[in-house]
Design brief:
Helix content is 34%, strand content 24%. The chain has ten helices and 13 strands. The N and C termini lie close together (11 Å). Bound molecules: adenosine-5'-diphosphate (ADP).
Length: 309
Amino acid sequence: MNAPSVCVVGSINLDMNAYVHRFPRPGETLHGGRFTTGYGGKGANQAVMVARLGGNISMVGRVGDDIFGQDMRRNLAAEGIDARFVFESAGVSSGVAVITVDDNGQNTIIVIAGANGLVTPDDVAAAQAAIAGARVLLCQMEVPMAANLAALRLARAAGVTTIFNSAPVSGEVPAEVYQLADIFCPNETEAELLTGIEVHTLDDARLAASIILDRGARAALITLGARGCLYVSADGADEVIPTVEVNAVDTTGAGDAFVGSLGYFLAAGVALGTAIERANAIAAISVQSPGTQSSYPRREQLPPELLVL
Ligand code: ADP
């Protein structure tokens, strides 16, 4: 049997983490204690999650013509991701996040979109066969909306299941994006920014979900952190799917682990409720160790029953 096939259109970033006792003041030079790098970008994170579960995954995106770009392409390839449609932009940097963390665990973060900001509808068109040939398309909000729209239109026309992960919310989401989403997936904060409903209780989440459905999405899936998620669909489903209770040490990238896993299981033909339960279980594993991609489990590390298709 062919491996479940997923296409991700999205961002590819390098996180650069500098650890300092305190933050420097303007004009000040400080010696930090430690420096680490980590592969990131919501698109790449979700693609890596699919790859680690054993999916057949292609990625559409852009890197700059710098050493980071080459390195990130190598990382995608090493994870088994088809990066033929990860293009290189001349004269711009790759996407980076420059992060400082102080002794109190506070951070400052500067994100430079770089080449991620240059992904175009033409890039998406070049990957038409990869998108139309997939079972599931995953999009987020770290590349231009025009590229997402092009991908969502292509996928819908080809009968590919579309998951739009509205993260991070920056500006308006066009009406057509809702209409082209089989599953529109925000977290609580994003749901509030999009709908104006503060999401504290399940009823708040239901109200936010109903607005998302009114805007044309076929289903709304709101992730609720340690509470799991709420799934509400235009055809009447309304389900809370709890996650596994664990001791969370670092929830960075949990949303991407969840969305990537969901994409994989839906592409595999697993029933929706079960796919969401398993995505919860895998995201819950990811929060138990530090880092983003480094906290995503590989197939071999998972209980076999989680992988039965
Ligand atoms: P984001 O990472 O985008 O902020 P959430 O915090 O809603 O998104 O988390 C996404 C998913 O990760 C949740 O739906 C859940 O499956 C899992 N998750 C997050 N935090 C925890 C936690 N503390 N314990 C167990 N699972 C968690």
